[in-house]
TrEMBL record:
Domain DUF1980: 57-178
Protein name listed in UniProt: DUF1980 domain-containing protein
Top-level taxonomic group: Bacteria
Any Pfam family matching the protein: DUF1980_C
Transmembrane segments: none
Annotated region described as Disordered, given as residue ranges: 1-35
Biased composition (Gly residues): 1-13
Alphabetized InterPro entries for the sequence: DUF1980, DUF1980_C, UPF0703_membrane_permease
Source organism: Flavonifractor plautii
Length: 180
């Protein structure tokens, strides 16, 4: 994520691997066990309660991130990158680029996260590698599709997208509230 620590916080502290919901033995291996269903990915929220995320399709290896579940999915990508690597992910955000830590072929489809008040707004999203970043206008809204992969950054495995398509999108009103 561009903002905050990976996982935890108001997001999802899950680190388990998906278990197909039609599997007979669904006994959890621990408190962080995640489960996959036909149209959802079930994990635990910050309080230990089951949380079902939508847009997950294990057969087609696709994840469509909804606006309402943007932050929750980001947390899952950070905690379960090994299980989800190779999945095609689609998400919408504002183009965030040209920071000192980004290469010329990187950008983030970001949403603004508010942990407390407007003064602490921070962009949050996945780093994307894309050959045509120079053609993207900063702060424009885009829907990005790409293949999820992990890359080492400062000793940590970080999820990223290898972009296959970028299309203009309508702006999304509102902020992400990680603790709601």
């Amino acid at each position: 994520m561009v903002s905050g620590a990976a996982g935890g916080g108001g997001g999802i502290p899950a680190t388990g691997s998906p278990i197909p919901s039609n599997q007979e033995d669904t006994e959890a291996e621990g408190p962080a066990q995640a489960e996959a269903s036909a149209d959802g990915y079930t994990t635990l929220d910050a309080y230990g309660a089951p949380l079902e995320l939508h847009g997950y399709n294990s057969r087609q290896q696709t994840i469509t991130v909804s606006n309402e579940e943007f932050y929750d999915w980001l947390c899952v990508f950070y905690t379960d990158i090994e299980q989800l690597e190779g999945f095609q992910v689609t998400m919408t955000g504002q183009v965030y680029k040209n920071t000192p830590v980004m290469a010329d072929n990187e950008f983030v489809p970001a949403r603004l996260v508010m942990a407390c008040c407007v003064a602490d707004l921070s962009p949050c999203g996945l780093f994307c590698t894309y050959g045509n970043v120079s053609e993207l206008e900063s702060d424009s809204w885009v829907t990005v599709t790409g293949i999820l992969y992990g890359e080492q950054y400062k000793g940590q495995e970080e999820p990223r997208l290898r972009v296959t398509s970028v299309v203009p999108a309508k702006p999304i009103e509102g902020y992400i509230f990680p603790y709601s």
